[in-house]
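We were asked to recover a plausible sequence for a given structure. The inputs and outputs are reproduced exactly as logged, with field labels preserved.

PROBLEM: sequence recovery
POSITIONS: 175
GIVEN STRUCTURE:
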């Protein structure tokens, strides 16, 4: 009888403490791309895990121009938040990951909405592109970020730079 009682107490403790094990991880991805063939270089975030409430999270977000055209080279254009398909994500570079608190996750979601709902033409190749979007998410997670001019159109190189700015990540640069 004592054995059954111990088993029941143990199971209840595990179920009761479930939210303590909850966590959402934010992964930082880049896609090498090709200006001439297929998609352009890109960076985006992937959110996976479970919130303290028990809600399962499996989301990803990237910032892009709504329409790719030469107009991108001349200044701001209409923007969009891009959600990637799982098969595309598998073909990208995962640079590093950070664990988020529920509060940070909520701030990330609010920031995504802010970028998605910005009025007018908000995508600018030099001042508000996918790198700036991912940088804003990284800052919410407490990472050090800056934007060297020679990396603003090179997502993989930029994420490698962010890796170097944050040695506590213990991540390696992607070649």
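RECOVERED SEQUENCE:
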């Amino acid at each position: 009888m004592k054995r059954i009682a111990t088993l029941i107490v143990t199971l209840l403790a595990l179920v009761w403490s479930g939210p303590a094990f909850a966590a959402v991880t934010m992964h930082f991805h880049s896609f090498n791309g090709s200006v001439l063939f297929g998609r352009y270089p890109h960076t985006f975030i992937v959110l996976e895990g479970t919130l303290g409430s028990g809600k399962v999270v499996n989301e990803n977000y990237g910032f892009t121009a709504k329409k790719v055209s030469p107009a991108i080279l001349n200044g701001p254009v209409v923007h969009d938040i891009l959600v990637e398909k799982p098969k595309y994500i598998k073909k990208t570079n995962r640079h590093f990951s950070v664990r988020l608190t529920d509060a940070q996750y909520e701030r990330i979601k609010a920031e995504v909405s802010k970028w998605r709902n910005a009025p007018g033409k908000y995508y600018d190749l030099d001042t508000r592109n996918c790198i700036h979007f991912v940088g804003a998410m990284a800052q919410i997670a407490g990472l050090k970020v800056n934007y060297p001019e020679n990396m603003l159109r090179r997502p993989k190189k930029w994420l490698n730079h962010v890796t170097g700015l944050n040695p506590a990540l213990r991540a390696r640069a992607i070649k």
